[in-house]
Write a structure and sequence with these properties.
By secondary structure, the protein is α+β, with helices and mostly antiparallel strands. It has two domains: about 1-40; about 45-155, Immunoglobulin-like (Sandwich), CATH 2.60.40. It has two helices and ten strands. It has helices spanning about 5-40, 45-50, and strands at about 50-55, 55-60, 65-80, 85-90, 100-105, 110-115, 120, 130-135, 140-150, 155. The strands form two sheets. Strands 1, 2, 3, 6, 7 and 10 form a six-stranded mixed β-sheet that branches. A hairpin with a 2-residue loop joins strand 8 and strand 9. The radius of gyration is 28 Å and the shape is rod-shaped. The chain starts with a helix and ends with a strand. The relative contact order is 0.21.
Length: about 160
């Protein structure tokens, strides 16, 4: 027995319907992922955390134009909201662990003293630049530069 025209039309309609449903699912998923990722995008750490230099210890060379930082004092403040699992990388720390703060509520600050193996930096107009990377669960990690004022660094001159 041969197929009738009615069964071919039904079969074609089912194929068309299945393809239309699959295309709709793909489009809806793409739109949902795009709006979901935009809504949950993290801010950069420089907008979420404030990093300030407090006091440091170092050795000055070449008439104060270069400093070898041994201890770096920082004050971290959560300005964009509560911050958890704050980590600072990019510094040659004396230990294997990175400086870490488990939690700061919005507006709260914590001071850290970071022991460095070797960090030489030269004097610029704003001060001595120190480059580090900071991030937390709520903000993506970002490299930032802080400037140490010569008066905030104690230590001998060579």
């Amino acid at each position: 027995m041969g197929r009738t025209g009615k069964s071919k039309t039904s079969r074609n309609a089912l194929i068309f319907l299945a393809v239309a449903i699959m295309i709709s699912i793909v489009i809806i998923s793409a739109v949902r992922n795009q709006t979901g990722s935009q809504g949950s995008q993290k801010p950069p750490a420089s907008e979420y955390l404030k990093v300030e230099h407090t006091k440091s210890f170092g050795e000055f060379y070449y008439g104060g134009k270069t400093v070898f930082i041994r201890e770096l004092g920082l004050k971290i403040t959560a300005v964009g909201g509560n911050a958890s699992n704050i980590v600072i990388t990019g510094l040659p720390t004396s230990g294997e662990e990175y400086p870490f703060i488990s939690f700061l509520s919005q507006g709260e600050s914590k001071e850290l003293t970071i022991m460095l193996r070797s960090y030489y930096t030269g004097l610029e107009e704003e001060g001595y630049p120190v480059y580090l990377t900071i991030g937390c669960d709520e903000a993506y990690a970002e490299e930032i530069t802080i400037y140490l004022k010569p008066k905030d660094i104690s230590g001998p001159s060579h």
